[in-house]
Write a structure and sequence with these properties.
alpha+beta, 2,3-Dihydroxybiphenyl 1,2-Dioxygenase, domain 1, four-stranded mixed β-sheet
């Protein structure tokens, strides 16, 4: 994932989503999501994904609560909840400039 400051991006995703941060064998800072299903690393010198082509959504328990943490940690809300109604989604820009979506399972 593109980043301007790897440590800042790592801290942001750890605090917002509870991702585990680790050092890979090559010394790169990497992440593992809270479910153990997604893993990756941050890179410098690659332009941020600021205009969605393929838009990654992170499934969360509460989009509203996650937005509060995103903004408290320096992210910027760019699409509020309700824009994709009846789906419960929102979009934010992370500290590296990437646009990421949030998705919440609808209540049944």
């Amino acid at each position: 994932m593109p980043a301007l400051d790897i440590r800042r991006s790592a801290d942001f995703y750890a605090k917002v989503f509870g991702w585990k941060i680790r050092k890979r064998g090559d010394g790169a800072t990497a992440f593992d999501d809270a479910t153990g299903q997604v893993s990756g690393t941050w890179v410098l010198g690659r332009p941020a994904s600021s205009q969605p082509g393929v838009l990654v959504y992170i499934m969360v328990d509460s989009v509203a609560a996650t937005i509060d943490v995103v903004t408290a940690q320096g992210g910027t809300l760019i699409q509020p909840v309700g824009a994709d109604a009846p789906e419960v989604t929102a979009r934010f820009r992370d500290p590296g400039g990437n646009v990421i979506g949030l998705y919440q399972e609808p209540s049944r």
